[in-house]
Every structure is written in C-alpha cells, then in structure tokens.
C-alpha cells in the first residue's frame, strides 16, 4: 500500500474542516484517519500538537472513527529536499505541492509503522 496526495484542506472553522474531512473519508470509503502530529524537535507536544489532538477529539463527537497520530517532524523538509534534488522543481512548483506531498509522506510513515507492527 502506498500513500498518495489527494486534496489539501486549509484550516478554517472546525465545522467546515470536519465536514470536509468526513466528506473526503466518505468518498474514499476510509475507515480511519491519520493526523500528523507536529511535535517539538525534543519530542514534546506544544500548542500545535494540542490543537491537532483537540481536532481529533471534536471530530470523534461527530463520528466515531479510528484516529492515529503520526509524528510529522521534518516531513516538510524531507519532501522539499526530494522535490529539489530528485524532481528539480522550482520554488513556485514546490509551493503548489509541498503540503499535499508532506501529508502523503506522513501517511506513508503511518502505513509503514502499521505494516511493521503487523509483521511482528
């Protein structure tokens, strides 16, 4: 299984964000959700990570769905390095795909982690 970028949902109001996520899940028949967790470099959780956890808790009030969190530290820089070195994309083209590609990178990390846990 390989993750691929779909659409980017820009954060606005919780209700709009939740509806967009649930609509996307319904359209893809997704049975769970992986949320990138923006940890601090020392592994602690700051306000952004707490905001992600709050989003998941509030989403659970609308619909009970399995949620997994995946450490997203360095995902954007890893993807940007790939886009520059391997695909030779200029700054404008990178800006158009960086967030979606980083989301796919985070999802792929979660899938690989789950696959590794299942193999044990």
Write up this protein.
The chain is mainly alpha-helical and 120 residues long. Helices cover 59% and strands 8% of the residues. It is built from four helices and two strands, in the order αβαβαα. Strands 1-2 form a two-stranded parallel sheet. α3 packs across α4. The longest helix is centred in the last third of the chain and has 29 residues. The protein is globular and about 45 Å long. The chain starts with 13 loop residues before the first helix and ends with a helix. The model has no long low-confidence stretch (mean pLDDT 88).
Keywords:
mainly alpha, globular, 4 helices, single chain, two-stranded parallel ribbon, 120 residues
Number of strands: 2
- What is the tally of helical segments? 4
| Topology as a string of helices (H) and strands (E) | HEHEHH
Q: On the 0-100 scale, what is the average pLDDT?
A: 88
Summary of the model, kept short:
This protein has four helices and two strands.
Please specify the SSE layout and strand pairing:
Elements: H1 14-28, E1 33-37, H2 47-62, E2 67-71, H3 75-85, H4 91-119
Parallel strand pairs: 1-2
Helix pairs in contact: 3-4
